[in-house]
Protein 1
Amino acid sequence: MGDGLRHDLDALRKEAGLAVERAESLEALEEIRVRYLGRKGMLTRALRGMGGVPEADRPAIGRLANDTRDEIERLLGERRDGLGRMAMSKRLLEEAVDVTLPGIPARVGTKHVVQQVLEEIEDVFIGMGFEIEEGPEVETDYYNFIALNFPKDHPARDMQATFVVNPEIVLRTHTSPVQVRGMLKRKPRLPLRLIAPGRCYRRDPADATHSPVFTQVEGLAVDVGVSMGDLKGTLAEFARRMYGPMTRTRFRPSYFPFTEPSAEVDVSCTVCGGSGCGVCGGTGWLEILGSGMVHPHVLENGGYDPGKVTGFAFGMGVERIAMLKYGIDDIRLFHGGDLRFLRQF
Ligand code: DAH
């Protein structure tokens, strides 16, 4: 009894199995599921025939219907997994990367030549017991000028073409303000030895030897009994370390408001060694820095007693030192950002 229905269910299972086998996508599988197993699907429809099945056969037919449903679901699940695996291998194939191909090399930067030379200068002075101090690039008129013995309207201010922010604020024209800041921070500590590297700004038109942005290193030593001899010895040693053991130094009298006496320092020409050439203009000497004995007013402004201590100071332009070291003839190259220039160092 119920053979017709049994037969229908069997046919249904086969038909669904075939459809599943042919399905090429998850969407197609879902359609098949709805078509055969959905609430209004073929299985439900087939079971409408249950009414005509004798009572005794119904449990067996019911089991068969359940088995049929389970079997179709199992086939759907298998096919779903199979399609998933196929999709995955297709993707893997399409997205395969040949890891043995050469890569695109990352361009590694280099330290800017000014920074390299600056670090060389720092190393020499750190070796002599100096410590590094930094100050602000936007500076007060007080630290940039007044504390260094440049009163308002003093003609010495004309030497420093200043970017003025307002009457009290300037872009620092030199690193000398860090002398006073450094002293105030450390007073009454002795001995005091510091170097202050950093950017400075002047309202100069740019040409081969002038740039509105440049780098200086300031030096300051304060202690009981510091003399001009200490200054000369320190800078002569610096020149030898920087330019080689045969380098000679020469001190020429000069003027700065914050030192007394003041001197400009030359080194024997790094190109010709002193015999005279184009680089040194035939003189055999190259000017590299300004220096002097710290003026008593400056010591006072730094919180030290000029009756008890003395000090020396110096300041140099790092670009100039680098130009002499590498034979660079135009200061504008340093801040022009041309990689063809910068990559040479
Ligand atoms: N600050 C000076 C300038 O930029 C350079 C200088 C000269 C610094 C003499 C010093 C010094 O410390 O003693 O022109």
Protein 2
Amino acid sequence: MKSYRTCFLIRIITDSGIEGWGECVDWLPTLQKGFQERIIPYLMGKPVVDRAKMVQHIKKWHARSAAAVSMALTEIMAKKMGVSICDMWGGKFREKVPVYASFQSYSEDGSWQRKSLSDIEKAIRSGFDRIKVKVGGKTITEDQEHMVSVQAMLEGKIGLAIDANQSYDLAATLRWQSLLDHWPNLLWLEEPLKTDHITDYALLRSRLNAPLAGGENVETAAKFLPFLTEHALDFITPDPMHTSGLEGYREALSLSRLFGIRVTPHTYDGALSRLYALFAQACLEPWSKMEADAIEPVEWDAMENPFAELIPLSPSFGNITLPSGIGIGLELDVDRLAFYQWDGASYG
Ligand code: MG
């Protein structure tokens, strides 16, 4: 298990002094070198209005860096126009977006189950009404024991998503069937199988009485198409840092609406990209006519994540009220950012 977390933040400042922040994740020395030697020299002197062209170009070098540049240029463009990100994207359908508390389940100590239960209990006490828990890191028997204890605590009142991180094959997943059948609060089962096994997903979807979710590592909207045309998933889970720019990310959201499939964004490593996922979700039409404002939740990392403090935003009763000011509508905590700055030492 990793004992550290990393995140790479960039700031672009225009000649007239307008700032925009971007965020990506990868091996830090690679990102540092890539930005210093290629991306910064390339961006210097270019007009912000050409941002799609620039993001497209950087994508060929490094898709994840392109995602960061896309965020920064989007913020700058909104500020130039004097509008919020949501206004620039067509306007908000809603002021609040639901989030679910996302847990890792496993910890180093022997009583990981007890630790996991106490983490979940804390989140529920703080008002979350939906959670996601990991399985697949232990034997199915151990994980099932744990999930039965989790469910006893939730008492059917809290929505539960289960994330297997591509740990199973079809047969192993079906061993969950009898439990899942009796869990009406189940929101979805996430990535039980390897993501490229699309046919197996379609087969599983027709056999298992549980909505299936997946696709957090899918890099372009086009790569979601096979899942949609093969009816392999009930939810797609794009991540604004894994698609090569916010445009591509939002294309994935639109695709989900066109195919009538729900979209619940994966956002784990960074607080800025999570904010963009929330903005995009606010601007997305409802997925259903059942409720006036039916919108899928965004992932909210409930584990210890110091980077979350860089963005002053926290949920209240499982919802985020979006900032509505110009650009991203809030300021990053640059003092804290300086405190966490990587000193160039090796890590691993
Ligand atoms: Mg996942």
